[in-house]
Amino acid sequence: MSALACLATQEGAVQQVFETREYNAFGRYKFRLFDSNRRKWRTVVVDDWIPCSAADGRPIFAKPQGDEAWVMLLEKAMAKFMGKDYASLDGNLMIKALEVLTGDFVCMFRLGDIRDAKSRGKPRQQQLWTRLELSRGPPPKDAQPGDDLRLVYARDDPFNQDLMFRSIKWELRHGSTIGASNSGGRDDQSIHGIVQGHAYSVITAEEADDKKFLRLRNPWGTFEWTGPWSDKSPLWDQNPKVKAALDFKPNSDGSFWMEWTDFVSHFNTLEFCCRSTGFDHIVIDIHEEHPCCGPCYGCLEGCFRYWCCCLGFKALCCGRKVYRFQRPPKGCCGCIN
């Protein structure tokens, strides 16, 4: 569910998973999921029978908003794909789910990893980020007790704090999906509003008044950060330049701003889904909230964006295919300061 919440921040990303996009009278729905072992897409078919509680008749797993059924159907398709039952989804890696949903390159960064000797004994703000990727074969020969055998260590050097922030900023500008979590604790525990062992979506990375900020969202829509620069923090009124630069508006929607130093103190894992872009990623919003004129409006809007806003040209000339994690360029050429 955390992977789905992160992916929902990207326009059209969730829609591309669905092959059946309308109500099916026979109750059969098709989904397109990526099989990383065979390196190809598979079509998974599920029915619309959803496990519900005998006590109150409510769905046992994913809970819909109103009469929406797509989340429950996609969850059922993922369960069938990953291991034939819902138990296979519990405790799985978010980057694995992102890979299945998108077919794109995924990786994970850990702060102060056990193998990073340079970070031992240092405060979190001085520790390094170590990159890991999904394992594609048998456990490596140098595996140590306690290693997660689903992951392998990348061969590049660890990232310092500045490089990690620039990487987040760079990937977000290129449409990538990023999740953040603290691997310690349980999801029924929270520190300053941050739920432990729970994944958050990273929405924006910005710099203002010589400070680095991240905007995150809790997929639950609740449990927001309550520390410095939270929605009720007096720092916003004390720093009007930062408030204007970040266009801050308090909302009780699960999203919040954190300064990078606070983020590093409360999160130790970053999960990247580096999205490939091209013609396959162009979608049309048919505005289902307006059943009568929505499709017509969506078609006109799509044509306008494709031709007048150069969306087609960008997809043709500026698309990218990601096969590995690339460090962001420095200076104006990469638009990263």
TrEMBL record:
<keyword id="KW-0645">Protease</keyword>
<feature type="active site">
    <location>
        <position position="218"/>
    </location>
</feature>
<feature type="active site">
    <location>
        <position position="198"/>
    </location>
</feature>
<protein>
    <recommendedName>
        <fullName>Calpain catalytic domain-containing protein</fullName>
    </recommendedName>
</protein>
<keyword id="KW-0378">Hydrolase</keyword>
<dbReference type="GO" id="GO:0004198">
    <property type="term" value="F:calcium-dependent cysteine-type endopeptidase activity"/>
</dbReference>
<dbReference type="GO" id="GO:0006508">
    <property type="term" value="P:proteolysis"/>
</dbReference>
<feature type="domain" description="Calpain catalytic">
    <location>
        <begin position="1"/>
        <end position="276"/>
    </location>
</feature>
<dbReference type="InterPro" id="IPR038765">
    <property type="entry name" value="Papain-like_cys_pep_sf"/>
</dbReference>
<dbReference type="Pfam" id="PF00648">
    <property type="entry name" value="Peptidase_C2"/>
</dbReference>
<dbReference type="InterPro" id="IPR022684">
    <property type="entry name" value="Calpain_cysteine_protease"/>
</dbReference>
<comment type="similarity">
    <text>Belongs to the peptidase C2 family.</text>
</comment>
<keyword id="KW-0788">Thiol protease</keyword>
<dbReference type="InterPro" id="IPR001300">
    <property type="entry name" value="Peptidase_C2_calpain_cat"/>
</dbReference>
